[in-house]
Design brief:
Elements: E1 6-8, H1 12-16, E2 26-31, E3 36-42, E4 48-50, H2 58-80, H3 89-103, H4 106-124, H5 144-153, E5 163-169, E6 177-178, E7 183-185, H6 187-191, E8 207-211, E9 216-221, E10 226-228, E11 235-238, H7 241-254, E12 258-261, H8 267-277, E13 286-295, E14 301-309, E15 321-323, H9 325-329
Parallel strand pairs: 5-11
Antiparallel strand pairs: 1-4, 2-3, 2-12, 5-9, 6-12, 7-8, 8-9, 10-15, 13-14
Helix pairs in contact: 2-3, 7-8
């Protein structure tokens, strides 16, 4: 049995970086479900669910080990405004923590449940014996959070090519975060109007924006596609308030139920963000497209589907990000998924 019934899908130490005056106790909260603004709540009581990772405690224990390493690394970044050396042990520990943070949340669990259910019912629709049950059946993994994390762990290797920059907010408007803090985006595929999924871990043009304090944000990105700040520097100063506005808007779109922020963020600003975001939140998480169908010799048919989560699309334009010449001239292949490394195409367990 797990030692802790209350299992946090956003680490407590992470939320502490957004606490009021870093007092390690209170944080601001806005619930997007009932639109309640609370200026002072204990951060330790947020973003958790009972036995979210199961009752045996194994997954929670492994996450705790990863969090323990990441806590010191992030604290060092916040204190120094410096990233770990590229390809160092701390660099990869931080990458692993960041990717898992993107897929250990309630939002990710709900996306996985919906995608699996849609796929199962779509496949059932081709079988005349069970077709009549399609609208009555729901199929989810027994432990969806564990299922999702296992898939991600098996796909971590496809992320090791991502480049990392530290964005330093020099404006007076703080970064906010949420119960789904890692923003997955893809300016490249969005601008090219590419159909299908944009934000799988292998996707060409993938971007991950992760606020780690009101003043700092980690940005993982595909270096073949984007140029961010000075080529020879890992730190990028953000001096345009509009850039911060756009990233906070993305965070509001991306959140599942709750936004978090420090004492410098006021209620009017949060309500304005939410008013804009709720108009653009998709009602469904995922789409399943039929890619190919073939008739076999025995008269039966085979079907190939592409399942992907809906992409955030706000025509994002940030002043400090441009695209490389190679990216602008790139011609897409005929695959439903555009990946960064073609050598990895078809490798089992790639999480696209």
């Amino acid at each position: 049995m797990a030692k802790n019934k209350k299992q946090h899908y956003v680490p407590k130490f992470y939320l502490s970086f957004f606490s009021h005056k870093l007092d390690k106790n209170k944080i601001g909260l806005f619930s997007i479900t009932n639109e309640i603004f609370l200026s002072n709540v204990p951060y330790k009581d947020q973003a958790y669910a009972d036995y979210f990772y199961g009752k045996n405690g194994e997954v929670e224990d492994e996450l705790a080990k990863i969090e323990s390493k990441a806590k010191g690394i992030l604290k060092s970044i916040i204190d120094s405004n410096l990233l770990p050396s590229c390809a160092s042990k701390d660099y990869y520990e931080l990458l692993i923590f960041s990717i898992l943070l993107a897929y250990r949340t309630k939002d990710s669990v709900e996306k996985a449940k919906e995608a699996i259910d849609k796929l199962v019912r779509t496949v059932m629709g081709h079988d005349e014996k069970v077709k009549h049950l399609v609208d009555k059946v729901r199929r989810y993994p027994k432990e969806p959070a564990v299922f999702t994390l296992n898939a991600v762990v098996n796909s971590l290797h496809v992320c090791f090519d991502l480049k990392l920059k530290l964005l330093v907010n020099q404006t007076k408007l703080p970064f906010i975060t949420s119960d789904n803090p890692v923003i997955k985006y893809n300016q490249f595929l969005e601008q090219r109007n590419f159909l299908g999924g944009h934000t799988g871990l292998s996707s060409k043009g993938l971007q991950l924006f992760i606020p780690i304090s009101p003043n700092l944000l980690l940005c993982y990105y595909d270096e073949w596609v984007y140029k961010i700040g000075d080529k020879f520097k890992d730190v990028v100063d953000i001096i345009d308030k509009e850039d911060v506005e756009k990233l906070n808007y993305l965070q509001t779109l991306n959140c599942f139920e709750q936004l978090f922020f420090n004492e410098s963020v006021n209620e009017i600003y949060i309500r304005q963000l939410n008013a804009r975001a709720k108009m653009n939140r998709p009602k469904e998480y995922s789409t399943i497209d039929l890619i190919d169908s073939q008739e076999r010799e025995d008269g039966s048919k085979s079907f190939q589907y592409h399942s992907y989560n809906h992409n955030l699309r706000i025509k994002l334009n940030l002043s400090f990000i441009t695209q490389t010449k190679k990216a602008k001239q790139h011609v897409f292949n005929d695959f439903a998924v555009q990946i960064r490394n073609e050598k990895s195409r078809g490798v089992p367990n790639d999480l696209f």
